[in-house]
Design brief:
Elements (H helix, E strand, L loop, with lengths): L3 H13 L27 E5 L5 E8 L26 H13 L5 E5 L6 H18 L5 E5 L6 H10 L2 E3 L7 H7 L5 H24 L11 E7 L6 H15 L3 E6 L18 H16 L4 H4 L13 H8 L6 E2 L5 H4 L7 H13 L6 H4 L4 H4 L3 E3 L2 E2 L7 H8 L38 H5 L8
Parallel strand pairs: 2-3, 3-4, 4-5, 5-6, 6-7, 8-9
Antiparallel strand pairs: 1-2, 9-10
Bound molecules: iron/sulfur cluster.
The site of iron/sulfur cluster (SF4) has 9 residues, from loops.
């Protein structure tokens, strides 16, 4: 049985950790209704292993007692909140106890900066050593690399953790200067560069030696906040592309900003988190990683933000209608990936099927193509099967038929919230009273406080 004070720390620190999405968290909503167990209270989230397995993690901060004062953060030093810190021993005990009870398979350990970056990183290493060396815990562990920590400490943490992440938080130097003046881009990129170098060296050694040491085997990730500043989707996507290219990140996570603090440089406290904008950035990120798109193709200087009515690939197709329709039987793999409604799997199936026999229109659905989108952009065996010619406005009406009239409610007491820094309110009308929980946010069920 865990000590009550440890349970209280767990409650506070798992609550504080919920804004960090850099572990692919999908905060569970299973509540205890008088039965056994309560995953929500224990801060259990999930991530996906390289082999596709879903792994449950204990997601917690080591401490919320921060010396920094980042404007957007609930744990900033100027906030009057309950401050607690785990000892390394306490975290190791919780992880082992939870693991034995089958609640979790791993740990996601983030932290505020307590005392200084070195002291915090030393405590993270101490926790890792207890878990790996004393408890012989070989489950998945993701830890934060604290910017400003000594490279030797980052190296030690990297040898014990599976994944590390440095949260870049904002895409430009200017935004960091305004909202997190104690951080700077160089300080954030330094540990990222060190982790990349470490991973590259180990990969090289693996080719030469049978028993090469391990270093961050599951790679590194980062998180960017969306909507806390005026930064456009274009700056966020360009920053993400650079991070993928220069630091071989496994993932960039985008986190719709939930206003937790009031401040002159922040969106109003009632502002809804820009969940749809976050969703569009995830779609665009997918296009960068798997569809061979470049950021500059998806957003231009004339179009700095994604159209919220259409996904980024459809939008790209609208801007490049002169490249369509594409012949399914002759287009190369890269071109097939550009067709709306054709995914990576269906493009591969098309390539495979074409080696056996020419593809007929009736085959396309069986190959996994979403025909209601794709048919306007393809020809099959020289024939076009869309009901109308390619023309942007007509296609937009077909792809996103909007109702002409909206049912008004006598009881709709909510109102649109101005969005002072993000430029626009990116959500549909607020729908309910209350603040969004993590799980609701992920499901697109954001709520607004009035
Ligand atoms: S350093 Fe991290 S925990 Fe501390 S205020 Fe900034 S974002 Fe929050």
């Amino acid at each position: 049985m865990l000590d009550t004070s440890i349970m209280e720390k767990l409650r506070v620190l798992t609550e504080s950790a919920k804004y960090d999405v850099s572990c692919a968290s999908s905060g569970t909503q299973t509540k205890n209704k008088g039965g056994l167990g309560n995953a929500t209270a224990a801060g259990i989230c999930h991530t996906w292993a390289a082999d596709g397995r879903c792994v449950s993690l204990l997601k917690t901060l080591l401490t919320n007692d921060c010396i920094f004062d980042c404007a957007y953060c609930a744990n900033r030093s100027s906030n009057d909140i309950k401050r607690v810190s785990f000892t390394a021993e306490e975290i190791a005990t919780i992880v082992v106890e939870f693991y034995r009870r089958n609640y979790i398979e791993g740990l996601f350990l983030s932290s505020a900066i307590e005392v200084n970056p070195n002291a915090t990183t030393e405590k993270i290493i101490q926790t890792l050593k207890l878990l790996r060396n004393r408890e012989r815990f070989y489950g998945y562990i993701h830890v934060k690399a604290i910017p400003g920590a000594d490279p030797e400490l980052i190296r030690q943490a990297g040898e014990l953790a599976d994944r590390m992440s440095v949260n870049i938080e904002l895409p430009t130097e200017e935004s960091l200067r305004i909202l997190a003046p104690q951080k700077n881009v160089q300080k954030l990129l330094l540990p990222m560069a060190q982790i990349k170098k470490g991973i590259d060296e180990v990969n090289e050694d693996r080719g030469k030696y049978k028993f090469a040491a391990k270093f961050v085997p599951a790679g590194q990730s980062t998180q960017m906040i969306v909507g806390a500043t005026r930064d456009s989707d274009r700056s966020i996507l360009f920053a993400a592309e650079n991070l993928y290219k220069n630091f071989s990140l496994k993932r960039v996570y985008y986190s719709a900003y939930v206003p937790v603090n009031a401040g002159a440089n922040l969106p109003a406290i009632q502002t809804a988190p820009p969940l749809l904008r976050e969703h569009r950035l995830y779609q665009a990120d997918w296009l960068l990683r798997y569809y061979k798109f470049e950021a500059k193709e998806l957003l231009t200087e004339q179009e700095m933000n994604f159209d919220l009515d259409f996904d980024p690939k459809m939008n790209w197709a609208f801007r490049n209608l002169d490249r369509f329709p594409i012949e399914i039987n002759t287009a190369d793999y890269g071109l097939l990936l550009r067709i709306p409604g054709v995914g990576v799997q269906s493009a591969r199936r098309i390539m495979h099927q074409r080696k056996i026999s020419p593809i007929k229109y009736e085959d396309l659905k069986k190959l996994g193509i979403v025909m209601k989108r794709a048919k306007y952009f393809i020809v099959c065996g020289g024939k076009f099967f869309g009901e109308r010619n390619l023309e942007v406005e007509g296609l937009k009406r077909i792809m996103n038929p909007k109702p002409m009239y909206e049912q008004l409610s006598l009881f709709n007491l909510t109102k649109e919230v101005p969005y002072p820094l993000g430029g626009r309110n990116l959500l549909p009308k607020p729908v309910e009273v209350g603040s969004p929980t993590d799980g609701q946010a992920k499901l697109g069920l954001g709520r607004v406080i009035f």
